[in-house]
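Methods: example folding runs. The two proteins below were folded one after another, and each record is reproduced exactly as written to the output file, sequence line first and structure-token line second.
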Amino acid sequence: MSARITINLAADGTFEMHLNAEGRDLLARKLLSLSEKNDHIHLAPNGMGEVEVSKRPYRTDDKVLEWGRSCSGRMHGTRCTIRTSWSDRLVKCSGHIV
């Protein structure tokens, strides 16, 4: 089965990330490969980023988030930015990966 990662906002505004087993493994591999020199990955549809995300929602009222970047390193801390388009920044999240 191919990797599937869907990032969305639910109808109530809750941020969600849905992953099948292959998508989970791919995202974990990419995040663990981050270093001081290679400090971020891009999430995008249709092979436009290092991690491909699905444009297909799980529920009809989900708002799928198609573009994102995850950063890690001393300069950035750990954070990600998710967008519906290059100009529309919707969600910022920060914290530690445990």
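Second run, written to the same file directly after the first:
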Amino acid sequence: MAARVRLAAGADGRGITTELVDVSAGGLRVRGAPPPPYLEGQAVEVQIWPAETNELIAPGDVSLRGEGIVVRVEENGGEKVHTALRFEGPLKLREPFESLFLY
């Protein structure tokens, strides 16, 4: 199963949905189409969810959300952009409320 990542930056929430390359407790690396809407050192919102290759997130999907700082942006000859970011605090689980069962 693949995972997708949405990175949003700025007051307008402009962002991209991209492919997860690697994730650890401290950060992640993604790969996507250029140009990225963020710069090195910029704060971004992060959302990670399990998905098929081109599937977009649906409102009811389970995901992880948090904030991070872009530490590296590398362009690969105009085809793909590799981005590394450091998490600013722990990621939080987002689960659809209607799927919770209370006993």
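Comment on the second run: The chain has a mean pLDDT of 80.
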